[in-house]
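@channel anyone free to eyeball this complex?
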Amino acid sequence: MAFDVMLRQLAEGMLGSVLIFALTLIFSLPLGLLVALGRMSKNKILSGFIGLLISVLRGTPLMLQLLVVYFFPYYLFGWSISGWRFPAIIVGFSINYAAYFAEIYRSGIEAVPKGQWEAAQILGYSKSQTFMRIILPQVIKIILPAITNEIITLVKDTSLAFSLSYMEMFTIAKQIAASNTTFTPFVVSAVFYYVFNLLVAFVMRHFEKKLSYY
Amino acid sequence: MYYVELKNVEKSFDDLEVLKGISVSVAEGEVVSIIGPSGSGKSTLLRIATLLETMDKGELYYMGEAAATMGPDNRTVYEKPVKIKELKKDFGLVFQNFNLFPHKSVLNNIIEAPVHVQKRDKKEVIAEARELLKKMGLEDKEDYYPSQLSGGQQQRVAIARALALNPKVLYFDEPTSALDPELTGEVLKVIKALAEQKMTMVIVTHEMEFARNISDRVIFMDKGVIACEGTPEEVFNSDNTRMQEFLGKLQR
Amino acid sequence: MKLFKKITCGLLMVACAAALMTGCGLKGTKTFTVGFDAEYPPYGYMDDNGEYTGFDLELAEEVCKLQGWELKKQPIAWDSKDNELNSGSIDCIWNGFTINGREDDYTWSVPYVDNSQVIVVNVDSGIVNFAGLAGKTVGVQTASAALSVLTDDEGQKALAATFGKLQEFGDYNTAFVELEAGSIDALAMDIGVAQYQIKGRGDEFIILDEKLNAEQYGVGFKKGNEELRDKINKSLKELKANGKFDELAKKYNLSDMTCLE
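replying in thread with the prediction:
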């Protein structure tokens, strides 16, 4: 295979990886916040249940979770799962990452002094106003480095989508390697991942700088 | 009519009785200082008055309106959240640790609540806020962030933030305890100025000289009860043994 | 709690939008979805233009032409092939798929390739027969037919017992590099795959003359799906009759291995 064809193939695969990456972030970042709030709920049943969920999601391999999400509608209900492949990948990734993000959010929320809540309460803020206007902006600054770590891991984790036969970059690299009996595509894909993560690190550093005004 | 009225307040944390039936009323323009040793319950009383904490028994009124009354089962019943929200507009609180919002500039700390909670016109609020900052001697600091200010400056911003909501009663919870000694003066000066303008205030403090000079009335609390109450002269010269012990310890 | 609701609501809306976007792939013609391992040349792999091709895929293409179907080539993770087939994600497994040992697990088409499992070694390894494998490390692909043969009592389990170690691997590329580097001494695999790999890598490797077994390839359908099986059988026979099958076998160097009658 000519080198430019290989590059094109891998770039197309990269697009698939980026799509998983972007959609996972779009869903898991807010979902993680929701899960964190549930985890910190005063309702013992809700917080206990979510605590268990987080522990399972963090304690089992993502690849296994992807398989479960994709195949369970068929095995449990006998539903047809045609067309469910890509959504299943996004659901699986989002749920898994939401569990990790939830714990990061929780640590961030708990790191904001109680006095901030009280000050807002005295000034007449409602609970949700306090959270959105006072607490969350401070939480984001606190947790940004931890979030950056997870995001970089996510870039590399996208290759797990192959367990659901999704053609992301690393899968394609393996296929080209197989048909051409060469390791070159792996080197190329390593460069792709690295450049992508450089970009991620650059963007996150920009955010951190923007938030360092106080 | 009293601006704020607390009646027979009782409060326990687990088995520890912190307040054992305290009644305090504050009239318009009155400056009341609450003094007493640590653990006497004065901070808890303040937190109950500002609705940060609930009481077990007792009643609370603002401007004659009930926030909490005694229920049929001899326990305090609080009004509905709508009513409570309304009554919260009557008072402000200045914290020991300032509790300014670190991610907002000085000006934004002050205008946040009037604009976003009271939904007032932003331009008007900003003009008022600048006026307040000037009174606090901080007119050149409006774009600073709290972390760039000294403790004394931060506490003055916190006072401005509380005043921006035009409260009828202003509470202070040991406003100078977190400050270096050389910075307490600037804060006390601001509070004194407010007293001269007949601002109704309740001040929990360890600054005895200050309490003596500024207050219309001093309340000495000890072990969950009011041990001694009256004009500064009456309290500081009282022959109440607990009061004498307390003053003696401070002077040593 | 309001905040809770707001976030939930937003998430649901985005999810609905995503569901709508994926739901617009409906077409009139029947699609025939073939599951294959895209790392299995010459039966299924990615060609120089980045397209999926191979003997089996071209054969499937011809069958679809006869039936008026649209072919969908679905590369699958080999470990998940049964889940993919049973859940209906794919219509069949068509990919150098060994019948022997799996007779009762799938509904099978007629066999079309005579395959055997062989052992590949380095030219200069000094290993010339199965006896030479005693104490050696032998690589075999996870979930492959070669692995079944080497672990089955009726197969070559006794031979495998003489190996120093049976090392499972994921893909042939890595396996061949390990063989070349000497971290494994021999590889067990299908003869067709072995020939393709050796062709692509030069003559540093040889196939031992002794064979682990003789077996046949077929198309695997979900157990009980005889209707689809019959259609494919009919088309395969037509392709044999009109010479297309032999033409493809020749193209992929498999002529002396076909067994379709």
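from a first look: Residues 20-166 of chain A form a domain with the MetI-like fold fold (CATH 1.10.3720.10).
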